[in-house]
Amino acid sequence: MTDRAPQPVDRQLPTEESRDLLALVREIAQREIRPRAAEEEDSGRFPREVFTLLSEAGLLGLPYPGEYGGGEQPYEVYLQVLEELAAARLTVGLGVSVHSLACHGLGGYGTKEQQAAHLPAMLGGGLLGAYCLSEPAAGSDAASLTTKAVRDGDDWIITGTKAWITHGGVADFYTVLARTGVEGPKGITAFLVPGDAEGLTAAVPEKKMGMKGSPTAQLHFDGVRVPDSRRIGEEGQGFSIALAALDAGRLGIAACAIGVAQAALDEALAYALDRKQFGHPIADFQGLRFMLADMATKIEAGRALYLAAARLRDAGKPFSRQAAMAKLFCTDAAMAVTTDAVQVLGGYGYTADFPVERLMREAKVLQIVEGTNQIQRMVIARHLAGPETR
If both were cysteines, with which of 13, 37, 268, 306 could 341 make a disulfide (CB 3.0 to 4.6 Å apart)? Predict the structure, then answer.
């Protein structure tokens, strides 16, 4: 790691309050998250105490209403918070995004009674959430999920397996999509399941290329009993709730991707200014200067794209196409920028002594989660040309 501290991003924020908020987040990130990121990722340690700290600071419920303990921040501010956290450690930035995703169903579709009963603890009470949509045989084709919820009086009995669950086994609550009716998207319902529910177990976490500190695991539901009071929305409304959550979640992934890319650029630039060859800093050589310029341009373009989509969301306008575009572009940009950062550092970039190799491994997963980038291209094309006719 270089000795040069990364320079703060020049952000366009809507209020003085939001500027103070970003300054606080950056301070927490540089003091509590970044210094231990490499060591804890290498050892696979999940930083639960960091999420507790973020909850106490009011940073786990930023885009939600203040009456339930949320921060009432617009999405354009919330996403820039995610970017700062992800730049320090993706496990934390992505973890906050996943937690917000897990709160989305109840926050947007729950009854007033449900929201009053659960949201305060979810948003600011130290709890951590997870989102359960994917299954071993239902990834991109999420509407084909087979986990079932069967009515039993005033309860539902959930049986099945969910896969690729971030925070699987460590979350305090899960938003679970299960089949309660016919095949296809119209037979799916959403539920809020406690993390300690009887019959709910987690498999051994997956061994991953990157983000080793963030547990990703299958969850097994063996007759998990959930009262109907924990059903979110109407029966059969679950898939539309999931799609709305994914639109918002894709913006979170886009912001995290730009954070990872920014961290890689900061490391590459600092190294290029310090490293000397042929009597000059390597930043003097045009080949590297052009690489750095292209990296910075991709980051600025990605940031502008996700913020434009966020402002549409904040204005109550449709933003699904723009969310898919942001997720696609920002994650591809992160992969390109982190790869170039490794190249700038040469042999050192391929070692664990510098963080760029970790950032490159972490960038890869962002092209996959919340809908692969091939799925994003399908979403965008459908907005442009309509559904496929085949």
Answer: 268
Q: Compute the residue count for the chain.
A: 390
Amino acid occupying residue 171: A
Active-site residue flag, 370: yes
The amino acid present at 194, given as its one-letter code, is P
3-state helix, strand, coil in the chain (%, to 5): 55, 15, 30
The active-site residue out of 67, 135, 370, 388 is: 370
> For residue 59, what are the CA distances in angstroms to 74, 262, 336?
13, 21, 30
Instruction: Return contacts of 370-374, CB within 8 angstroms, 24+ apart.
Output: 370/246, 370/249, 370/250, 370/252, 370/253, 370/327, 371/140, 371/246, 371/250, 371/324, 371/327, 372/140, 373/327, 373/328, 373/331, 373/332, 374/140
**3-state class (DSSP) for residue 52:** helix
Amino acid at 342: V
- Please state the pTM of the whole predicted model: 0.96
* Strand runs labelled E in the chain: 129-132, 148-152, 155-166, 173-179, 188-194, 200-202, 216-227, 231-232, 276-277, 280-281
Per the DSSP assignment, residues forming a β-bridge with 216 are 166
